[in-house]
Design goal:
With about 140 residues, the chain is mainly α. It has six helices and no strands. The longest helix has about 45 residues. Keywords: Membrane, Transmembrane, Transmembrane helix.
Length: about 140
């Protein structure tokens, strides 16, 4: 079933389905993947985790090439609009259709990838912060 509600709702539906079928939650691939990531990070030293966290924050907050692509390419097209129009529309050519399709597919894919990367960085940062906080709480007690 196609849903535009995102991964959080997808996981909820998987949990609900597993619960209704009396299946263990360990059968859900996304939860297993999360457990594997947590287990891996728990094996690392706190100093290493902090270094990884800083790198992940850089990744999450970095603007990257995709926002530059989204904002700069239209200006590039504007600067060369006369030449671009002459090339795309010469002699009744349908080349402009391919150009527009390619541009919008590339643009859409790039934006989706950009936000997925930011979400994965936030995901890893939260796991690392939780592990560090848990270790600090254990050391304080």
């Amino acid at each position: 079933m196609l849903s535009f509600r995102g991964d959080a709702h997808k996981i909820y539906l998987q949990l609900k389905r597993a619960s209704q079928k009396n299946k263990p939650f360990s059968t859900i691939k996304d939860l297993n993947e999360t457990e594997e990531i947590i287990n891996f990070y728990q094996q690392l030293k706190s100093t290493t985790l902090k270094t990884i966290k800083y790198r992940m924050i850089k990744e999450k907050n970095g603007s990257g090439i995709i926002p530059i692509f989204v904002t700069a390419v239209p200006w590039f097209f504007f600067l060369f609009s006369k030449q671009l129009q002459q090339f795309l529309f010469k002699n009744g050519s349908t080349l402009w259709i391919y150009f527009v399709l390619f541009y919008f597919i590339t643009l859409t894919t790039s934006v989706i990838l950009h936000f997925r990367e930011k979400a994965w960085a936030a995901f890893h940062i939260q796991i690392i912060e939780d592990i560090i906080k848990e270790r600090e709480n254990v050391n304080c007690n």
